[in-house]
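Supplementary Data S3. Sequence and structure tokens for construct A.
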Amino acid sequence: MSSQESFERVAQKRRTRHALLVATRELLGEGKQPTVPEAADRAGISRATAYRYFSTPAVLAEEAILDAIAAEFERLDLDRAYETQDATTRAVETVSAVLGMIMRNEPLFRTYLGLVVSPEGGARRGARRVTWLSRALEPLAATLEPAEFQRILHGLALLAGMETVVVLRDVCGLDDAGIDETARWLAARIVGPAA
């Protein structure tokens, strides 16, 4: 097989996988729990081929959601949050930007939570938020004891995820603006005394 043929084969595999994931997200968006054959039919791909990529509906659905979430995280722009050296402002803007992205894609994140949250627990999720918030808190890193820095970081991590949206919307009855306002207020209170 020539290098050109090899390249074309890899490109075709990517297109096939992508088509299956898009079809699965469409079906999930319609409120369905798609099977591998249903996703294959929607994507116009043979069922046998689809099973070579995804052996079970659960794996297919989780991969489709993770693929979409990864794309949203890639588009998240935190440059504005990091423009200032004020740690409180950086933390507040980071939390607000992350929650804004989550609220714009809330059905996607709720579907993912439904797929992965189980009574037995699951894999560690949300590690990106720790990275983003650590960067937001860089101005404080040299002035705080490591344990205090970690407490602030962990407190902010509670605010920068789908869990916050679920509690503030479902339990407290807030709309998007109320969620953002409350999360900003909490973030400022967590960082404020240390800044």
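Construct B, processed identically:
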Amino acid sequence: MRNHGGPGGGANQTLSESEIVEAALRVVRADGVEKLSMRRLSRELGVSPMAPYYYVADKSELLDLVATAALTGVRKPPPDAGPWQHRLRDLIDQIDEKLRKHPGLGDVLIEQMLGKQLDLIAAVMEILFDAGFDERNVLASYATIHTYLFGRARVNPRDRSALSEAPLPEAVGRTVRYISDLRGRYSYDFGMEVLITGLEAQLVRQRDGHVG
């Protein structure tokens, strides 16, 4: 890595936004979003602790830039790519792949339902409109997808030791051996199948004139 000046170089250390974002992404991929700080970023860049502040106002702005960069490359499936269910699953799978590569990114995005990443939000909503959902149900559907996609990592015990040492209720105890599934593909696929099947059922209800 290039060294942008010596210790204490301050404002004469020249950085570009892309260099800052790439360094931040390296930290996130290696250690997760929770380890990303302006000081940790400066170490990754090999610059003085104050240098990044000449380009990024604070950690909040840095996280916005990181989220945008991390999701770069997600493409909206074209209308002729298949039924809406397949296109929606393809799009969400692409986003999930980015989340898996950048631990903790979902925690950033769960707070930003309609504030950031508007191109991706529009891509999901356009598929839902194509499916036949009305405006109210498109928003409700997107909120459900958003919560599952970006929030599911929060319901993620690491292992059996994360549970109480006290005897577990019988129903809970029967499931514990599968707890590692919560981090894996099985749980993700299960949730996506439930979500899309539920959306199909809600679309039928809408067409039949059911409200709420």
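The chain has two domains: 10-70, 80-207. The two ends are 56 Å apart (CA to CA).
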